[in-house]
Amino acid sequence: MHVTDAPPEAIAAEFDPAAHAAPDPFRAIAELGGEVAWIVDLAGPTPTLRYASPALVDLLGYPLGDYARQLAAPAPASALAALCGGLAERLRRYADGDLSRLRLVRQFDIARADGQTVPVEVVSTLLLDGAGVVRSVAGVLRSLAAAREQEAARRRFASMLNHEFRTPLSTIDGAIQRLEVTGANADEATRKRYRNIALAVDRLIAMLDDYLTPAQLEGTGQQRRSDALDPRQLLREGAELARASGRAATLDLGELPELLRCDPQGMRLAMKVLISNAVHYTAPGTAIALAGRRAGGGIELVVRDHGAGVPEGELEKIFTKSYRGSNAGARPGSGLGLYMARAVVEVHGGSLGASNVAPHGAQFRIWLPAQGGKGKEVASSSPSSDNPGNKTG
């Protein structure tokens, strides 16, 4: 691609917006969502702006002739350099066999003619003729300003929720600690209620840390998060985690539903904790067994190791916050893994427990409620005094 020696005024005059005002149906479709469609012709000695949506002028404030000038005679200092630049290098790399240059998505900020900055996304593709020669590049340009404002509003809302939930939870936490201290002579049932309240507060605060912190929000996109996961895939991923840690892993997938309604990220966290626990507390060379089956109106996912097992009297304690087993030794850890795993499972209406198995080893069992294969039952199939017309037959 060559750069023309024609004066900038002549270059700008070559693009006549009136001559390109009527888009064909495909361009019209591209512009339905408010996006800017454009086509740059590469057949001549210099790139030529063949078409650009009139909305481009409204979006950035520059006349269309400025884009034609920047394409044909690049000026590094131009505000349009980022938007119009890089084409020659893209074509060179594509000619050298880099097929990733065929379609590109770029995001950057660009200065408007009035000095304000607009975040934009440019999606473009190279158009080839029958012989595979690049003849033009076409694409769409869209403003990301609304999306960024929506993201900022979402983050402000999440931050507000975090604060508004954390404040009363801290109050409750302080009050229950005081009750536990001053109620030392209370009966066992009352002390148990105090402990349950304290555990519930800890779990809620842990969930705030897991889902409403800046670090978590950083990885959350605008798209609706998935609310289902294949339990067989969850077990396969657990086996891969074990193998990545140098352990053999066996799988028994049994009869499991294709999808389980859950928070996939949370369930993967719980599975990661169980695999990590099995790796840390068993000797190298021992295998980890993962299994799944239907059980008790739901599904059961089991992670079994062949280590020394959990010390007697600690099978329930290992799920409490910050508790580390007496066999932890110098192994690194905070005592939060199993606590968080159980919290995640219980949020889903399930349970997580541990047991020792003969001849040696420990078994961690996740039970989760699961629908059958026919989808969610909204109405009861049995008659009800509140709904006498709901009868079968």
Query: Ends: how far apart?
Result: 77 Å
Average pLDDT over all residues? 78
| Uncertain stretches of 5 or more adjacent residues | 1-14, 17-22, 219-224, 372-393
Output the helix-strand order. Answer: HHEEHHHHEEEHHHEHEEHEEHEE
Summed up, the helix count is 12
Total E-strand runs: 12
> Share of helix among residues?
25-40%
Q: How much strand content do the residues show?
A: 15-25%
CA-based gyration radius: 31 Å
The chain-level structural class is alpha+beta
Plain-language structure description:
With 393 residues, the protein is an alpha+beta fold. Helices cover 38% and strands 20% of the residues. It contains twelve helices and twelve strands. A five-stranded antiparallel sheet has the order 2-1-5-4-3. A five-stranded mixed sheet has the order 7-9-10-12-11.
Chart the SSEs and their pairings.
Layout: H1 8-14, H2 25-30, E1 36-41, E2 48-52, H3 55-60, H4 64-72, H5 81-84, H6 87-95, E3 103-111, E4 117-128, E5 134-143, H7 145-182, H8 188-211, H9 214-218, E6 228-229, H10 231-244, E7 249-252, E8 260-261, H11 264-280, E9 288-295, E10 298-304, H12 337-347, E11 351-356, E12 362-369
Parallel strand pairs: 7-9
Antiparallel strand pairs: 1-2, 1-5, 3-4, 4-5, 6-8, 9-10, 10-12, 11-12
